[in-house]
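Figure S4 source data
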Amino acid sequence: MSGERIAKVIARAGVTSRRGAERLILAGRVAVNGRPLDSPAVNVTEMDTVTIDGNDLPKREKTRLWRLHKPVGIVTSTTDDRGRRTVIDILPDTLPRTVTIGRLDVNSEGLLLLTNDGDLKRKLELPLTGWLRKYRVRARGRVTEGVLEALQNGPVVDDCRLGPLSVSLDRQLGSNAWLTVGLRSGKNREVRRAMEAVGLNVNRLIRISFGPFNLGDLRPGEVAEVSPGILRNQVSGIRDIR
């Protein structure tokens, strides 16, 4: 069929992710040329008129990417039923609608990527992308060669072996150790769970890089846009950047 799947078109317009677009469609909120859809199995072209809740789909903007230093205590979501502050609450009003690429739990801090392109979000989150995420970790406990080897091989948690981690001991300060940890998967609380499996209790976790993008000298709560040239160079081969 000619054209592109409707959910992909909606995601690339920056409205929501593909999965979010499919939910909008199944809820009857999306129409093509005035006809409400009841299934996402529809292709559209630039000649079609797509509306959501009766409003025209925004024209696709140029893909943009931002680096945010997420502080501790901020939730990586648009809303929180417990009333906690979210990433949306701390973003400047000048930013367009964005979605986060991956997550950081509420007690973690550091680099969080944001984009206005839901399709880019989906692709960068796929395990096949294989981008390394690096963390500085402070943990209570004694780090031995045996502990490092267990982490590098992938510890077993709840009868499930986690993916292997690249890990190095930076320094041991009394009962606390600082480590640099890298992993390519993005399972929920994976670094913390891996550390707990080898007897280490994480008391600070900072993501310092996500693929080729680094936290750098961003202060907590600060956001900076990645230049179009750098974005195009780093993401080419994963996605066409307009």
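Figure S5 source data
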Amino acid sequence: MRIANPDRLLTAADLSATLLFAIEGATAAVLAGADLFGIVVIAFVTALGGGIIRDVVIGDLPVAAVRWVRYPAVALSGAAIVIVLYQSVERLAPELIMVLDACGLGLFCVAGAAKARDLGLSVLPAALVATITGCGGGMIRDVLLNQIPIVLRQHIYAVAALAGAVAMLLLDRLGAPRWLSMSVGAAVATTLRVLSVVLNWNLPEIH
């Protein structure tokens, strides 16, 4: 059986997460009452923001979002899907946002971890970079929509990204195939995020 090239796996995860986050961001913009331009802008920052921060932090310049046209093209495609199907989006919005957000978070965190490891970072810095990759775009989205970022206020979010990244990095360090380590890491982050919403898990608050 032929195993996919690690670089192609990373790119596939990155682009898949970009599409999911673009759809999720555009959906959030529709619910917030943004116009067409606003929908596209929010889709772009949600989809590309985390990856841009990641690439700047690890010194991979110019960042992938401007080096390769496929990234903005995928983000634009996600926004277009929501604009065309906006009536369906409004009916499915809460569930759609949660599922897309969880899947995108899982893919982005393992893509960030894999890229950081390939550039020579050790496990802890790579896990932190992965968490930034998964959470960065959503934080920018929430700020632009005048909301407290969800990563700071509700359910398990950054912790889910961190857990998925650590799972992926540990398997990678143990010599597991890249496709397996990325799959497990994405599954851990996605599952933890979905369970946190369904079961209303939150980190302790200080009163």
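The CA atoms of residues 106 and 187 lie 7 Å apart. Residues 86-118 form the longest helix (33 residues).
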